[in-house]
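User: Structure tokens for this complex, please. No commentary.
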Amino acid sequence: MFRIDPKRLDLAAEFRRNPVGIHSPELQAVLTVMRTLPLEQRYVLIRRKPHGEWVLGQLTGVRNEPPRIWHDKVFHSAEAAEWHVFKLRWQHATGEELREADLP
Amino acid sequence: MTRRLVAYSDRFSAHPGERVEFKVNAMSGGEYRCDMVRLRCGDRHPQGPGFQETIVASPVNRSYQGRRQEIHAGSCAIVPDDPRLAAIESFTLAAYVWPTTPTRGRQGLLGKWCEIKRHGFALAIDEGEAVLILGDRADRVDVIRSGTKLHERQWYWIAATFDRETDIARLIQRPLDPMLGGTVEVARLVATGPVDGDNGVPLAMGAFLCAEDDRPKPVARYNGKIERPRLASAALDDAGIAALAGPIPPEALRDVLRGCWDFSQLIETDRIRDLSDARLDGILLNLPARAMKGHNWDGTQFDWKTAPEQYGAIHFHEDDLYDAGWETDFTLEVPAAMPSGVYCARLTQGDEIERVPLIVRPPKGTATSDLLFLVPTNSYMAYANEVSTWPSGAAEHGFGHLCGYGPEDIFLWTHPEYGLSFYDTHYDGSGVCYSSRLRPILNMRPGHTTAWVGAGGTVPWQFNADTHILDWLEARGIEYDVATDEDLHYEGRDLLDRYRAVVTGSHPEYWSMPMHDALSSWLDAGGRLAYLGANGFYWKVAFHKHLPGVIELRRTEDGVRDWESEPGEYFMSFTGENGGLWRRNGRPPQSLCGVGFVAQGFDVSSYYLFQQDAQDPRAAFIMQGIDSNDRLGDFGTVGGGAAGLELDWVDAHLGTPWHTLRLASSVEHSNYIMLVPEEIGSAAPNMSGRENPKVRADVTFFETPGGGAVFSTGSIAWAGSLAHNGYDNNVSRMTENVLRRFVDPTKFEMPQG
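Assistant:
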């Protein structure tokens, strides 16, 4: 199966620029792998203010159970939240931390 | 992060003079205030026109004392208490069962059992095996266990007897498939005295019953099918028990038979028939699924009407719900002077606001405009309280972004008693095939955005998305009346004949046969349809013939399906009609309105380019004031463009009329806008808008023989572009050009073929 190459920081930079929308085939492959996860590892957003504030959540995988919520992980745009979760998943998949300073 | 004030009304629409009852659950008690508001726009997108509602004077505008109201979900069959049941001492209980969650605690199958007093007798499932439960007047309870696990989704014949003379109980658990082993039988002396059949509760199937707030409350709710439940007032021997398994009452047992229920009769109703001389017919609570295959379905019959004997099962679910059954908190009599439009009862308690929509129609039998906005309430019901993304590990593959849940989403996921949508599966994994409006529908609210639509779950869908159209009609000064899908279903052509033109919502997906017949014959007779959405006229649904406010869907062998009907269960129980896609019922959307569903995705939208047909003189009225060199709809609050979310295209093979003008087609769709299953014979890598030119929306126009016409936009996102630049844009202009001409009585001329 396709493995995410931690050296392909160009793909991370592409996502950083445009988290939601048209992506290159290579970034799409990365996202497809990242988004193939067990239910209990699925990150979600919790809307605190319409169009203005989200916090990070994660499903438990148990029917009718509320999500885990990190009230201190606050985002003021959906794009910022997508980037945060991308970094978490990058590290999970590659074992390497994705640092913004390293992006091309 | 949850909800404390929720409500519903007994109807979606009303004429002036009619009464609408509102039912409120104020979970914290205390006072709340009601104000009737006229709704214009429910979208809070920062670049949109903003949330707009206006308070209208009404006698119901005041404060009310709140109270807590509960929902008792879970389906079961109820046979009212009867002296012949109360007098039972010795007995035989038996039924075929097909359990779907046998390990999920205690589940009542068949019996007269009071869970509060723990008196009576019942067959049940407990800890994964069949049990017989006995309770006497001295509060002694004995449970006889089969000792052998039931396998899920397998048929069993389960029977139990109790002999008052010997105090011996027997329990038989017989799998029909020999792969599951042989018959298990347990017999022993019981540790109770005479069982208490005179316990004041009805006989129940699929649950035990408690009475709470004067309404029956199913507990020990069973998931699975029951077929041929039987009750005799004697402990039968093996031959007698075997005779009960047949389809009709055994002649030799007439004197002792107290119930021989045949679920293959009265399938279209909420009643069950007893074939025994006792005639103890019953009623179904919360609409368990009917027209379900029985143990004897042989794979040669697919329509329950022609082989009802093979459809003798009912599938009960712990999370079935028909009518929340709440008390009325206040009643609105729609004033004579209330103009037709979309209103809400706005309930406020501190920071908590609940809005219950109400479609106010013109005075009965009249029209107050030439244009009817047909509010797609079937589709709102189909999506009612949808929680489909919560149990889906693959959700982001369909959306291209994280889900963004709001307070109502968390409330619904943690309150399964509020009922499910056509997009959900029951706890046992079977599909939800009935959906009712007699409950709070928390995703049918102005202001609601949908978790999986748009980045961060910020985009409105269905009801709230359709307020973009209301807002635009108001802004452009275009007069309109409103009516619902349900109104069209019951009134048919009489309703449409009062109007010159109909404008749809953004996603009018679910149509009954009478609705479809009325619309198509009205178009042939000169009616005009402006279809401002996509994925419309897609699924065939049925209304119940007697019960108000509930529709049925079978997700059969094609289409975008969150679940699939079981083989042999494609025919709807409410009407006997074949269910599924209209395309698979010989009426593709293209044959009605020129375009039909081709692709979907929920990240970003795109724009259209005008096509050669835009220059055709027949389209001149549509293109007036529009530069065909411009991009069409390269703007909007729904994903940034007018072409997005779900897309329809033309297809002559599916019936797009020969003279249809394709005015514009969309381009540049994202990786996550992908072809729908019915467009794919087998899987291929060119699924998305990046690789496949079929992934597009088409804007079309054609005339009908009776002087009518149809205009279609091919995109759900269209409505989100109407308000751009103060309503001065080419999407708004084109829509207005069409509607103003459509209400003009001058007949359209069809071109010569």
